[in-house]
Amino acid sequence: MQLQFLGTSGGVPTRTRNVSAVALRLDSGKRWYLVDCGEATQHRLLRTSLSLVKLEAILITHQHGDHCYGLPGLLASASMAGRTQPLTIVGPQAIGDFLDAVQATTGLHLSFPLVFVDVETLDGPLELADFSVDCAALSHGVACYAYAFSERHVERKLDRQRLQALGVEPGPLWGRLQQGEDVELADGTRLASAEVLLAGRRPRKVVIGGDNATPARLARLCERADVLVHEATYTEVVVARLGTDNRHSTAARIAAFAQAQGVPHLLLTHFSPRYVYARDAAVSIGDVEREARGHYAGHLALADDFDVYSLSREGVLGQPCTGRKASRYAALQDTRHNDEQGAP
């Protein structure tokens, strides 16, 4: 399973980060899912292998612009790319209203139907092609949600010893049994696939949250989760200076929650533009990491645009597959100014 970050800035884009968007897909196949779609997400996609024709669903956490302003352009581009299959969009009703207004006022005509799912009306998990998606309401200024993606189809191995004991030699029947199909043997005996399939591994689970001032709202979703992706807009020092958290989380709060919950992997994102890579900046992205590490002993990482993280079948998260972060840090660490100082 792969997570690719397309935007990791909160509020507004910076020279090096775009606003919120993260792609999720399984290890094989080209089908993928998008959580949030900040302005210019479609531009970020041009630098990836992700195809708008293969996009299975878009899940929007809430209607603030840095999470949804990219939708009209992305949908228009998907139409221009020749997409014809329906596209599922999940989010609060305000997202459906937003898309209706855009289509009505800008003449946006799509070559494919939109299937809108109001997350506020779901009374159970939403079954998508590859994932069962559960949701939880968060604490923000508007209706905001987190999504938990659990694998639907976990591969199971054949019990070769049992098959050979039954006299079933390797061949086409093995393939059909592997796919969960019951078969008829040469002597007329029916053999159920469940009889010869070993127990499967535990399904992987990834939780991706929207803006959220109360991490405890994620407790149910994070049960048995392998990875939590969550905003760390501020550090406690900056919140104290501002006198408000603007209904966002701090690195300390989400890290302490993940530690208490026992989540093995924590990926932080949605950083205030005030946090930069410059060594002599008044506030540095390193401040966010240091604060989080003071409260969390698991595998911690601060996401950067275009980072790709792979989650193994055993639930182990690897290092990001990109050289962008190291090269950018080297280029910026000696800068003498912070042009984004004072950003929200």
CATH superfamily of the largest domain: Ribonuclease Z/Hydroxyacylglutathione hydrolase-like
CATH architecture of the largest domain: 4-Layer Sandwich
Q: What is the strand content? A: 15-25%
Shape, principal axes of CA atoms: globular
Rg from Cα: 22 Å
Question: What is the chain-wise order of helices and strands?
Answer: EEEHEHHEHEEEEHHEEEEHHEHEEH
Q: What is the end-to-end distance?
A: 33 Å
Mean pLDDT: 91
How many DSSP E strands? 16
Largest sheet: 7 strands, mixed
The percent of residues in helical segments reads: 10-25%
- How many distinct folded domains? 2
Which CATH top level class of the largest domain fits? Answer: Alpha Beta
CATH topology of the largest domain: Metallo-beta-lactamase, Chain A
User: What would you call the structural class?
Assistant: alpha/beta
Number of helices: 10
Task: Give the strand order, joined by hyphens, for the main sheet.
Answer: 6-5-4-3-2-1-16
Low-confidence stretches: 325-344
Task: Show the helix and strand layout.
Elements (H helix, E strand, L loop, with lengths): L1 E6 L13 E5 L6 E4 L5 H5 L9 E5 L5 H4 L2 H10 L6 E5 L1 H14 L7 E5 L7 E2 L3 E7 L7 E7 L8 H6 L6 H7 L4 E2 L5 E2 L13 E4 L18 E5 L4 H7 L8 H11 L3 E5 L15 H9 L5 E4 L5 E3 L13 H9 L12
Parallel strand pairs: 3-4, 4-5, 5-6, 12-13, 13-14, 14-15
Antiparallel strand pairs: 1-2, 1-16, 2-3, 7-8, 8-9, 9-12, 10-11
Helix pairs in contact: 8-9
Can you characterise this structure?
The protein has helices at 41-45, 65-68, 71-80, 93-106, 160-165, 172-178, 236-242, 251-261, 285-293, 324-332; strands spanning 2-7, 21-25, 32-35, 55-59, 87-91, 114-118, 126-127, 131-137, 145-151, 183-184, 190-191, 205-208, 227-231, 265-269, 299-302, 308-310. The protein is an alpha/beta fold and 344 residues long. The protein has two domains: 2-154 and 201-332, Ribonuclease Z/Hydroxyacylglutathione hydrolase-like (Metallo-beta-lactamase, Chain A, 4-Layer Sandwich); 160-195, no CATH class. Strands 6-5-4-3-2-1-16 form a seven-stranded mixed β-sheet. Helix 8 (251-261) runs parallel beside helix 9. The radius of gyration is 22 Å and the shape is globular. The two termini are 33 Å apart.
